[in-house]
Amino acid sequence: MSAPGERSVTIAVGRQVALDADVTRPPSARGVVAFAHGSGSSRHSSRNRHVAALLQDAGLVTVLADLLTADEEAVDVRTRELRFDISLLAERVVAIVDWLSDEDDLAPLPVGVFGASTGAAAALVAASRRSVGAVVSRGGRPDLAGDALAAVDAPTLLIVGGADVQVLELNRAALAELRGAKRLTVVPGATHLFEEPGALDAVAVLARDWLLEYLAV
User: Fold this and answer.
1) Helix (H) or strand (E) holding 122
2) Residue spans per domain, the chain
3) Is the pTM of this model over 0.90?
4) What is the mean pLDDT of residues 34-55?
């Protein structure tokens, strides 16, 4: 069932690719947040939609888009390689940000990006190429953004589960490369997917507060 204010759109990436996306605009919108989903996920991700619902309640427009087409998704299910193609995924996030700037009702709003897993790397690469007001990473792999990290000016919040030990170390290393306002927040006891009771709610609150601080108009 669609949320109130939700509409389905297609977002062009060049002339050959069109991405399916769901845009939800709450009353009195204060900013807009594009979601970059993680490995093997889609715009229907229950975790991202859980976070998006809290952002909508706070007056933020959400854009949940498939970063792969249906044909690409079918290939990725077999090979698992496109989900780690950060260059390709970042190109798609850039296209979403550009699309927002062309939409009359959304263009005036400040833009943030919320990335999960490999989508966090794509979000950070996109933020190094476009003017973005804030970035949030949930259980992300910001290290995969490589040299782009040093070019990110947008205030960036990295959220990692305390029990996600390897990813936590990767996030600590990436944090040192970021040059703008930045913070690493650890959710105690949470694993990579934040499946523990209350863990995803903690992520949503942290993301909301960070995005409102830097985006709300």
Assistant:
1) helix 118-129
2) 6-215
3) yes
4) 84
